[in-house]
Structure formats: structure tokens, C-alpha cells
Design brief:
- The chain is α/β, with parallel strands linked by helices.
- It contains nine helices and eight strands.
- An eight-stranded parallel beta sheet has the order 1-2-3-4-5-6-7-8, with no helix packed on it.
Length: 229
């Protein structure tokens, strides 16, 4: 019945939200995947299993029916550094048109970030989210030090542990000159990190800076509102 529905209706966006394991081998061969523009795999609630695993992700990456995909989200799948490495290595072939990648709440650490940002594939992204993972200052360093200038317009890193040192690295990175939106809520960033972000020449194009849940102090919040409203 589901196959008949997708054959009949012009569906271009699909969200797979389930605690049941995906039959990924069959999924990867479905002909209507060729129409998809956006695909999301999501655990139904926090700490619940999601439809993917590292092995099932490998089956999806073997598909040749997702070449038109421009947005991919993997939320709560707990893929870890190995899953992100696999995505970095094979994603360019599977998703050559991808512009927006969300890998959120997936137990990614600093170690997993470097292979992704070093890939030519990731250099084409306009939007990247690594929110709610386990990134610290080394992860911020990997993002900031990538040799590729990239063309990111939106970067979401909320719910990590970047701290002021991570904010300093982001503020100093020339590759972020194209950012118009930067999201860093709940990252233990204080007044020094805020000052670096607000004063960074490389972030002059920012129209939105989210620092919700950080200890900025009354003066810091006033300064932030004065800049962004």
C-alpha cells in the first residue's frame, strides 16, 4: 500500500520516525526514492532507538536512487564517529546534490568532525548542523581550520561544549565569512566568547546569532540584543 501511495502521489520529502529498525536493503532499492528532495531519519523520542544503525546507514549509502537529494537529516540515530566517517567517505557519491546536512543527537565527538569537514563533498554544503552531540574545543578547531573555504550560510552547533575557546576559534575562522545564521545555544559560552563573536570581522554578515542557555550575564544579553534585536 505504501509503495502504491508513493507511486501515485508526487512526494518529494520523507521523514522516517520510528523505533523499529528500517529494512534498509529493501529501502535502498525503492524506485520512488529518485523523486525525493529531502529525507530525514529520526528516533521518535530522546534515548529511544531510531530506524538506522551504522550497518543500515551503509545500505542507504549504497543506493543510487538518492542523487537528487538536497537535504538529509539523521537525528537521534546514535551513529557516532564511525557513522559520520562513513558518511563523509561515501556521501559524495550517494548524495551529489546535497546542500544541507543535519547530524544531530548522534553521539558524534571531536574525532568524527575532521573527516567530514576535510571532504570535498562537505565543502559544497550551504547548511550544516551538528547540534546536541559531544563536541568540544577540538571539534570547533576542526570546523574552523578546514582548508576548504566552503560556502556555509547556516551553522548549528547547539547543545555541545565548545566554551569560550570554541567561540574564539569560530570567530577567527575566515571560512565562516559567508555565514548569515550561527546557532550556539547551551555551549558554556560566557562574555569573552560573546565579545569575540560580536567583534569578528569574519562574521560581519551574520543576521542571526543564537546563544540561548549560555552564561552571558545581563550586560552580555543587552549587547547581543543591541546587535540582533
Amino acid at each position: 500500500l505504501l509503495d502504491a501511495f508513493f507511486h501515485r502521489e508526487p512526494v518529494t520529502e520523507l521523514i522516517v520516525a520510528s523505533s523499529h529498525a528500517l529494512d534498509s536493503e529493501r529501502f535502498a532499492t525503492l524506485p520512488w526514492l529518485e523523486r525525493l528532495d529531502a529525507l530525514e531519519f529520526r528516533a521518535p523520542r530522546s534515548n529511544a532507538p531510531g530506524p538506522l544503525s551504522r550497518d543500515r546507514l551503509e545500505h542507504v549509502l549504497a543506493s543510487r536512487r538518492l542523487r537528487k537529494l538536497t537535504r538529509l537529516a539523521l537525528v537521534g540515530e546514535r551513529l557516532g564517529d564511525e557513522g559520520l566517517r562513513l558518511l563523509a567517505e561515501q556521501g559524495g557519491k550517494t548524495f551529489p546534490a546535497l546542500e544541507c546536512l543535519h547530524v544531530e543527537d548522534d553521539a558524534v565527538t571531536d574525532k568524527g568532525v575532521a573527516p567530514l569537514v576535510a571532504s570535498r563533498w562537505a565543502a559544497r554544503f550551504a547548511e550544516l548542523s551538528l547540534a546536541n552531540n559531544e563536541l568540544r574545543v577540538e571539534g570547533a578547531s576542526a570546523l574552523a581550520d578546514s582548508r576548504s573555504p566552503g560556502r556555509l550560510t547556516r551553522l548549528w552547533l547547539g547543545g555541545n561544549q565548545l566554551g569560550d575557546d570554541g567561540a574564539f576559534l569560530i570567530a577567527r575562522a575566515p571560512r565562516f565569512r559567508t555565514l548569515v545564521e550561527l546557532s550556539l545555544p547551551r555551549n558554556r559560552i560566557g562574555p569573552p566568547g560573546l565579545a569575540a563573536l560580536l567583534e569578528a570581522e569574519s562574521l560581519a554578515q551574520l543576521r542571526s546569532l543564537d546563544l540561548t542557555g549560555n552564561p552571558l550575564g545581563a550586560a552580555g544579553w543587552k549587547r547581543l540584543r543591541a546587535r540582533f534585536g
